[in-house]
Amino acid sequence: MTEHAGPRSLPDLASIGGGAAPLAEMYRALVEEIPAILYINGPEEHSPTLFVSPQTTDILGLPPEGWYDNTWSRHVHPEDRDAVQENYVRALRHGATDADEYRFVRPDGEIVWLHDTIRVIRDEHGDPALVQGIMFDITARKRNEELLARQAQSMERIAAIGQRFTELLLAGGDLQAILDALATIAGAPVAFDDAARQLVGFATAGLDSNALLTTWETHSRRVHAESAAAGCAWAPVRLRDEEWGRLHLLAEEDADEIDLLALDRAAAAIGVWLLSNRDRTALADRARGEFIADLRQGRRWSAQDAVARSRTLGGDLASPVLLGIAVELVADRAAAQGARDPGSERALTAVQDQLRRLAAEAGTTCMAAVVGSVCLAIVGLSSDARARSDAGRLAARLRSSVQEELQRSISVGVSRPGSAEALRRALTEAVDAAAHGARTLRAGGVYHSADLGLRHLLARLGDGPELGRFVEDELGPLLEHDATGKVPLLPTLRAYLDSGGQKATAARMLHLERRSLYYRLERIEALLEADLDDPSTRLRAQVALQSLDVLRQRNAAYTL
């Protein structure tokens, strides 16, 4: 900012302005009393410093000599240095008073904030004669501003955290959603165990889940008992003054205030979630249900992690042969027409319990849970050769037991055998097979996925867009008509095809007069621009209807 110059004394300043020595002494007394640094420079950008007050030593840790040799400019914070120089030059060019705030790094490394005001002094001709400046130490003010800014930011984060968990609960978020949210906020793994210190759910946030699963009970019992559990903050999850478990935040370093608050908010959210689900099922069953639902959707779990996780939930997916079993209640006439079945939830829970009991009696591992309107299970068997027969016997015993004890008809779907890597496929096949009996045939029974033929192929295609495009190409105009028209025509087409193209049989199935049936078939042909008397047209329509059933069942499963 300035060129080097030798130190100037206050008596020397008398010659600058033409004043007398007593005036300089008065000025010295004033300058040395105020808690600020005064300086005087020449009028040009690179003019030397003519005077600087001795407060530089106390405020900046730099004696006046360091100022005169221009050492001080090198102590301006690197991020502020260019802006300070630009502001100084601008003030000189415009002859204005200018104020700037910037950071100064003392020789001891401490950062000082300065408020620097400069004023250009002009001579009798109006030309710049001197530059006079005064610096105040505003470090305390800046620290207070930073503290207030951090507090405001913290308050905003606190409000956002509370809002996030509230919105999760209002949106029907489950335990896993709460754990994932906390792990994202804290950037650390999260775990929730029950009163027996068994792991119920977790979100890894990048941690090796297998390590967490295999060492959890040691951590929860011994580590917490022997020490303050360094690297782990936890909060109790309470429900009506009863502790149901603990929520753990597994941070590598001590959690900060925001993380601890998020932990408390998440624990409270889990308490609300428990309260809303307490009457429907036990906590462990909810955890199993979420785990199986994740497997069904292909979310989160590798085969290795799924096996480890299953052991913490009272099951073991390490068997050499695994297959899926799905149980769906066969609706009575009222339920089939859309009426709510108030006993279905209790019935499915009873089915779940009976399936576990029967599997245990048969010496078979079984993890079962109610997921939406279906009881889903993963069964472990020792032999691939006997998998179909063993699973069939288990399913038949379950159907007979439910019919006898609950007086309910069930459709049991059994997948093809596979391994832990194919669990998503197995559960999908089981759900499709159970739905085939419960919704398509509306008849109880045991349905093996391998026996579904075309429906099994269509179910496999349902994961991609091709099946939907095929249905739209074949049935699109008819579906649009039924969405807006008063009399749906899709049931007419279905009955006509199910009757093998026999119009008299179709009319009886629909309880219609033949003339009404003929009219509806003509409307269908016009909409589809097709001849229903053509066998190839009927074949395409039959496949399209089955494809539509698969897609609707798949969508219903996704909304479980």
Automatic annotation (TrEMBL):
<dbReference type="Pfam" id="PF13556">
    <property type="entry name" value="HTH_30"/>
</dbReference>
<feature type="domain" description="PAS">
    <location>
        <begin position="23"/>
        <end position="95"/>
    </location>
</feature>
<dbReference type="InterPro" id="IPR001610">
    <property type="entry name" value="PAC"/>
</dbReference>
<dbReference type="InterPro" id="IPR035965">
    <property type="entry name" value="PAS-like_dom_sf"/>
</dbReference>
<dbReference type="InterPro" id="IPR000014">
    <property type="entry name" value="PAS"/>
</dbReference>
<dbReference type="InterPro" id="IPR042070">
    <property type="entry name" value="PucR_C-HTH_sf"/>
</dbReference>
<feature type="domain" description="PAC">
    <location>
        <begin position="98"/>
        <end position="150"/>
    </location>
</feature>
<protein>
    <submittedName>
        <fullName>Two-component hybrid sensor and regulator</fullName>
    </submittedName>
</protein>
<dbReference type="Pfam" id="PF08447">
    <property type="entry name" value="PAS_3"/>
</dbReference>
<dbReference type="InterPro" id="IPR025736">
    <property type="entry name" value="PucR_C-HTH_dom"/>
</dbReference>
<dbReference type="InterPro" id="IPR000700">
    <property type="entry name" value="PAS-assoc_C"/>
</dbReference>
<dbReference type="InterPro" id="IPR013655">
    <property type="entry name" value="PAS_fold_3"/>
</dbReference>
<dbReference type="InterPro" id="IPR051448">
    <property type="entry name" value="CdaR-like_regulators"/>
</dbReference>
